[in-house]
Write a structure and sequence with these properties.
By secondary structure, the protein is an alpha/beta fold. It folds into 4 domains: 185 residues, no CATH class; 68 residues; 87 residues, DNA polymerase, domain 1 (Orthogonal Bundle), CATH 1.10.150; 113 residues, no CATH class. It has 26 helices and 7 strands. Strands 1-2-7-4-3-6-5 form a 7-stranded mixed sheet. Helix 20 packs across helix 21 and helix 21 crosses helix 23. The longest helix is centred in the C-terminal third of the chain and has 20 residues.
């Protein structure tokens, strides 16, 4: 990182973090000082200061050049990131857990991911190349592998079949959208859907050869947002090539560049931010305001926007427009950014499958008394009425209820997230139950029930930090819809909508 004379990355980060804290809070209270010192010590011990400083420059460029942006993921848990302007939610007010972002058990650098307006994102990527050196920067590649259609097309083309016949064969294969691959794709029999219809020896050979190509690398594509910056010439560390889009990309994928020690920064294009940018641009036209100042001036306590959100009239609004999300907004009578944050976390498979959503809604409305499986859980689940709603709460329970180290608590969260039923989980479960009994006198049967709730939730849980970031974008979209409905819906249509098709937005 290029630095002022006599400054180290750690000293510069400390200075910028404290300047930002003064700007945000007016004074550095004991709470702010303790949290900043804790985070800065952790960042310095890992040598990650430059990551924060580089991200600050990138975000600053985006703001100054009218590129709408939003933080995402667990980075919003960091007060240092908030003070540098990298993330928008206040981690102190929201009680966000820094260790969810930077955990002692983690051996790879933390992800500071940023969402950008998809149409204006290229300007930010150009800035990164120019600021840090075109010889030092590359986008990360992804490796596209042969699937059933692409393998069939390539093999048939190599044997000289006419394009019409190749297309007819490819179109006859069943389409797959999500979920596990159909059994025929895993079958040892090559292309069972086509073997009976195309019986010639040539076709049988094509099917056999195409089947043998499945999973083999086909070509390189560009990662949706990953970019890496090397300390020197990037070709000293990783082979590169020029992508069709005109940017330099690595020839190694994400896993490989991480093993080399390169740090991936994610600059992702989000259409919801493009909509906000288009609305703000229209509002700012002919005035002295900038696009960024229009968005930053949107109030967080607007009664008209609150009523629109409460009634679920949010079609077109980022993240809160699906029927299920609109029903959730109405159920909890959402009227604020914080309420949207709750709704985003509630409408997930974790709370839905465990019946936790209904329990939360009843308690939120005052229809059911708040109760805890054990008194020691009360301070940990106080702000969610005794219900596990966020991933961070799994860490808190493991650490504060059962005394697991933060490293083990994050291992537990990750193991649960990957549905790992192996030996590690059994060992952690035993330690959790024993720790809860020794530390907080939790009976084994109650600790077992808490463990089951955590396990049922963690696989699909939502980080509170991520929900907090996206809630702010959703609120801004709702404000735009309420106060500038024609401009907003025109922007939604111009950017090809979101959850629904164009017809629904026109209606």
């Amino acid at each position: 990182m290029p630095l002022p004379a006599g400054m180290t990355p750690d000293a510069l980060l400390q200075q910028k973090a404290r300047d930002g804290a003064l700007r945000l809070y007016g004074e550095i209270t004991e709470e702010v000082e303790n949290r900043l010192s804790h985070e800065l010590r952790a960042i310095e011990s890992y040598g990650y200061a430059s990551i924060f400083l580089i991200m600050e420059e990138i975000v600053q460029f985006a703001r100054q050049n009218g590129v709408p942006m939003s933080s995402r993921g667990s980075a919003a848990s960091s007060l240092v990131a908030h003070c540098l302007g990298i993330t928008s939610p206040d981690p102190l007010r929201l009680n966000l857990y820094f260790e969810r972002f930077l955990n002692p058990a983690r051996h790879t650098p933390p992800d500071i991911d940023t969402d950008l307006c998809s149409r204006r994102r290229d300007a930010v990527i150009r800035f990164v190349y120019e600021r840090f050196g075109t010889d030092k920067v590359a986008m990360v590649c992804t490796i596209n592998r042969f699937r059933r259609r692409s393998a069939l097309r390539e093999a048939a083309k190599a044997h000289g079949l006419p394009p019409q016949e190749i297309s007819a064969m490819a179109d006859a294969l069943p389409h797959r959208w999500f979920g596990p691959r159909p059994k025929s794709a895993q079958s040892d029999l090559p292309y069972p859907e086509l073997i009976g219809r195309y019986r010639s020896p040539l076709h049988q050979q094509i099917f056999q050869q195409a089947h043998s190509m499945l999973g083999i690398p086909h070509h390189l594509s560009i990662h949706p947002g990953g970019i890496v910056i090397a300390p020197g010439a990037i070709t000293d560390l990783v082979p590169t090539q020029l992508a069709a889009k005109g940017v330099v990309i690595t020839q190694f994928d994400l896993d490989s560049i991480e093993r080399l020690g390169l740090v991936k920064l994610d600059l992702l294009g989000i259409r919801g931010l493009t909509v906000l940018g288009d609305v703000a641009e229209e509002i700012a036209a002919g005035k002295s305001e900038t696009l960024s100042s229009v968005l930053d001036a949107i109030p967080q306590d607007d009664p008209a926007t609150a009523e629109l959100v409460r009634s679920g009239r949010t079609v077109g609004c980022f993240q809160i427009e699906s029927p299920g999300m609109r029903a959730t907004l109405r159920e909890i009578q959402a009227r604020s950014v914080d309420d949207i944050m709750v709704a985003l976390a509630l409408y997930r498979p974790g709370p839905l499958t465990g019946g936790l959503k209904d329990e939360f809604v009843r308690r939120h409305r005052g229809e059911e008394q708040i109760s805890h499986l054990h008194p020691a859980l009360a301070p940990l689940l106080e702000d969610t009425y005794g219900v596990i709603l966020y991933q961070e709460q799994v860490l808190r329970i493991a650490h504060e209820l059962a005394g697991l180290s933060l490293a083990d608590a994050d291992l537990l969260r990750r193991a649960m997230s990957h549905f790992d039923p192996g030996q590690q989980m059994q060992s952690l479960k035993g330690r959790f139950i024993a720790g809860a009994a020794g530390r907080n006198s939790v009976p084994p049967e109650v600790a077992e029930r808490v463990w089951e709730l955590m396990a049922a939730f963690a696989g699909y849980g939502f980080p509170k930090a991520h929900a907090a970031s996206y809630a702010q974008v959703a609120w801004r979209a709702a404000w735009c819809k309420r106060h500038h409905p024609a401009i907003f819906m025109a922007a939604v249509l111009a950017n090809w909508g979101g959850y629904y098709g164009q017809r629904e937005y026109l209606m």
